[in-house]
């Protein structure tokens, strides 16, 4: 429903000629800019925490976030914003990354919290959440995809560069949906902590994946997937 034709009222006609001014109205609704989406997985965190507030970053996790922040800063891009999951490990990762990107506003959202997006196919034996979790989390994560992953608004004149700090399940599902791959295959993808996934959304709505789970900027002994 973001295709320009879906955004105009085809029944509206020119009062003088009685003809539809389709071409001019279509141009008004067409995107002009490209969106660059950088999906960052949070750094390593304490798995033994009972509540979310206790699942803070480990010392290694903080190092990973520093490396990720340094890598993003080294790209020399003018980032527009950092949108992050409201969970502790994503918030802490964001705070460290943002030190390397001064002046970039941060926005917290519950939509990007970790969860079970859709039952994976093929199924796995080591991870089997309750069926109700797919209904609760799946609707929210799909809402996150629809809310954040789309072509630029027609009013946007320049290309944008946005960072999203969230979780492996959310990123994997978003990548499958954005590329129009079967979303049930999300669990076949693997993402390291602090990794960078780069999606490009062109004005015509076409999506390209430039990097998936990149951690080539980290020393091998700093790389984890927990």
UniProtKB/TrEMBL annotation:
Record InterPro entries: His_Pase_superF_clade-1 (IPR013078), His_PPase_superfam (IPR029033), Mito_Ser/Thr_phosphatase (IPR051021)
Gene3D superfamilies the record matches: Phosphoglycerate mutase-like (3.40.50.1240)
E.C. no: 3.1.3.16
Listed GO CC annotations: mitochondrial outer membrane
Name of the featured protein: Serine/threonine-protein phosphatase PGAM5, mitochondrial
Main location: mitochondrion
Location(s) in or outside the cell: Mitochondrion outer membrane
One annotated GO molecular function: protein serine/threonine phosphatase activity
Keywords on record: Hydrolase, Membrane, Mitochondrion, Mitochondrion outer membrane, Necrosis
SUPFAM superfamilies given in the database record: Phosphoglycerate mutase-like (SSF53254)
SMART domains from the UniProt entry: PGAM (SM00855)
Gene Ontology terms describing biological process: positive regulation of mitochondrial fission; programmed cell death
PANTHER family referenced in this protein's UniProt entry, alphabetically: PHOSPHOGLYCERATE MUTASE-RELATED (PTHR20935), SERINE_THREONINE-PROTEIN PHOSPHATASE PGAM5, MITOCHONDRIAL (PTHR20935:SF0)
Protein family membership: Belongs to the phosphoglycerate mutase family. BPG-dependent PGAM subfamily.
CDD domains in the cross-refs: HP_PGM_like
Gene that encodes the chain: Pgam5
EC class name: hydrolase
Reactions the enzyme catalyzes: O-phospho-L-seryl-[protein] + H2O = L-seryl-[protein] + phosphate; O-phospho-L-threonyl-[protein] + H2O = L-threonyl-[protein] + phosphate
């Amino acid at each position: 429903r973001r295709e320009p034709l879906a955004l105009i009222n085809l029944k509206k006609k020119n009062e003088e000629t009685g003809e539809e001014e389709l071409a001019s109205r279509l141009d008004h609704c067409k995107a002009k800019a490209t969106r660059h989406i950088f999906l960052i997985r949070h750094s390593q965190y304490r798995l033994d925490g009972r509540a979310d507030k206790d699942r803070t970053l480990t010392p290694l996790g903080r190092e990973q976030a520093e490396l990720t922040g340094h890598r993003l800063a080294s790209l020399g891009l003018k980032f527009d914003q950092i949108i992050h999951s409201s969970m502790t490990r994503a918030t802490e990762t964001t705070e460290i990354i943002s030190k390397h990107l001064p002046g970039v506003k941060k926005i917290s959202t519950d939509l990007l919290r970790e969860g079970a997006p859709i039952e994976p196919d093929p199924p796995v034996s080591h991870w089997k959440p309750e069926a109700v979790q797919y209904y609760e989390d799946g609707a929210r994560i799909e809402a996150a995809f629809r809310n954040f992953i789309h072509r630029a608004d027609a009013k946007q004149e320049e290309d944008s560069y946005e960072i999203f700090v969230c979780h492996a399940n959310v990123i994997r599902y978003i990548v499958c949906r954005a590329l129009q791959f079967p979303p049930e295959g999300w669990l076949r993808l693997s993402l390291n902590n602090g990794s960078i996934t780069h999606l490009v959304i062109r004005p015509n709505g076409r999506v390209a994946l430039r990097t998936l789970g990149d951690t080539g900027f980290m020393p091998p002994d700093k790389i984890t997937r927990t």
